[in-house]
Task: inverse folding
């Protein structure tokens, strides 16, 4: 049941993001395009039946009876996109209609799409409830999650945030409550610029760094563009790039960062790769926990200069170093070739949804235009609170709290693995949230995931972070679990592993 529900959840999530992109496209006055419909595996229908509006009607409006899975027929049709769906679409399309839709039509369809999105969200939440219900009551007590890349509540400075919120409304009620502009809350923008030693026009503050990534990809990446990614890499980045139709080249990640020699070979010669962008998570990488060495930072920048690609330095964990020496950002080493993103999710809390981009002013200006068209401005209330939190020095105390907790948790996890699961290979991270674990060749991580769920412990399968392979790997996130839970969780994981052999 778990697997079915999880699969449906994944599909619903995909569908929701497609709907959101359609809505954004309509908001920009574009036609929503094919990405409203998913189903890349289905053959293209004949041009005459490809009215996007007709198909939108089909997916967004039709309300059938509830299906066996509890999902409205219309939603399931959109997810499965089998032959009957296609027939339905063809019927709903206005044959031969090649006229662009009127504004009123677009607005009506947007309303319908929004309604569908709300319903899908409801279905999603319901399924999520079923999933956690299925996972919770195990013989060994509540599920211990090594899956979530989020801090546990005990290391979030809730009181500090409450005080920052009070100060935000008191010190700048107008700026805090107004729309603002797409570059972000001016005081926070200036504070971030100062921390990076750049002028504010190099900075754009967004609703979380995922939003910054999405804007950057929207600005730079077109279908068929080549992009270098690390192997493994953050699953949401891979998804976002694939949804844009990018051609991904996954280059092996080593304990000291991306294999720059393999990258050099990939780029070499007339038939070599011609990437537009390389996505790199330099510090305490998600999912591997590895850090890019100084030598490799230099080598990567030299390759970027030689082959003319942009380095996207995705760096939300940089402040969370608990051992080893800090390294310079690639942004500071080559500000014209690097676009940098970071976030307050990992140092303050993820719910605040504040992240940012730093880059050349021209690029930031172009991304700001995209942001204006998307949402006028990001969340000023959040950004004003984060500003107050930062300006008061609470951020430094919060980083210290998180860092100390992570150091203890990483250490506990490494010791527990050595004690309980000697087959596990891993590198103890010098910071951040994650540890990458390799199990003996032939281990089936899907079966392990299932066996672990039965014993009340969860993790993310390594296969989620690579384009192919990874069946004997997994990511353990230790930021959301206490040392006691880590010990218990690893004991359960080891029991699950033993049950497979
Ligand atoms: C590498 C990386 N980039 C971006 C993000 C997104 O962070 P945010 O919460 O700021 O959107 C994450 C979150 O886990 C991440 O690991």
Result:
């Amino acid at each position: 049941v778990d697997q079915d529900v999880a699969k449906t959840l994944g599909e619903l999530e995909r569908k929701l993001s497609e709907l959101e992109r359609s809505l954004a496209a309509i908001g920009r006055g574009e036609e929503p395009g094919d990405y409203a419909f998913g189903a890349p595996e289905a053959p293209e229908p004949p041009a005459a039946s490809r009215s996007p509006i007709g198909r939108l009607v089909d997916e967004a409006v039709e309300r059938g009876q509830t299906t066996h899975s509890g999902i409205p027929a219309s939603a399931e049709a959109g997810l499965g996109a089998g032959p009957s769906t296609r027939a339905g679409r063809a019927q709903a399309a206005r044959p031969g209609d090649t006229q662009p839709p009127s504004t009123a039509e677009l607005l009506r369809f947007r309303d319908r799409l929004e309604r569908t999105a709300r319903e899908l969200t409801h279905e999603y939440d319901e399924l999520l409830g079923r999933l956690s219900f299925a996972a919770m009551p195990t013989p060994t007590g509540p599920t211990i999650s090594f899956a979530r890349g989020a801090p546990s509540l005990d290391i979030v400075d809730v009181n500090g945030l409450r005080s920052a919120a009070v100060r935000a409304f008191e010190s700048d009620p107008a700026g805090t409550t107004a729309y603002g502009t797409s570059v972000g809350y001016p005081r926070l923008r200036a504070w971030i610029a100062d921390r990076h030693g750049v002028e504010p026009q190099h900075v754009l503050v967004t609703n979380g760094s995922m939003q910054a990534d999405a804007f950057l990809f929207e600005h730079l990446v077109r279908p068929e563009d080549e992009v270098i990614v690390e192997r493994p890499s953050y699953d949401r980045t891979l998804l976002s790039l694939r949804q844009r139709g990018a051609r991904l080249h996954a280059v092996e990640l080593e304990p000291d960062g991306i294999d720059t020699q393999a990258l050099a070979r990939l780029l070499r010669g007339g038939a070599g790769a011609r990437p537009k962008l390389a996505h790199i998570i330099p510090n305490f990488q998600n999912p591997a926990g590895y850090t890019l060495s100084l030598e490799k930072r230099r080598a990567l920048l030299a390759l970027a200069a030689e082959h003319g690609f942009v380095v996207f330095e995705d760096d939300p964990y940089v402040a969370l170093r608990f051992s080893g020496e800090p390294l310079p950002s690639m942004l500071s080493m080559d500000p014209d070739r690097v676009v940098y993103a970071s976030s307050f999710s990992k140092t303050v809390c993820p719910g605040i949804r504040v992240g940012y981009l730093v880059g050349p002013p021209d690029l930031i200006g172009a991304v700001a235009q995209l942001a204006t068209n998307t949402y006028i401005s990001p969340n000023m209330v959040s950004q004003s609170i984060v500003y107050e939190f930062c300006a008061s020095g609470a951020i430094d105390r919060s980083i210290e709290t998180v860092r100390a907790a992570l150091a203890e948790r990483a250490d506990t996890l490494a010791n527990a693995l050595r004690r309980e699961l000697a087959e596990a290979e891993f590198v103890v991270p010098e910071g951040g949230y994650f540890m990458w674990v390799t199990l003996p060749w032939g281990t089936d991580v899907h079966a392990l995931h299932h066996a672990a769920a039965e014993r009340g412990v969860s993790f993310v399968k390594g296969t989620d972070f690579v384009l192919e392979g990874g069946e004997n790997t997994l990511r353990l996130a230790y930021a959301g679990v206490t040392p006691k839970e880590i010990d218990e969780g690893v004991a359960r994981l080891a029991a699950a592993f033993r049950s497979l052999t």
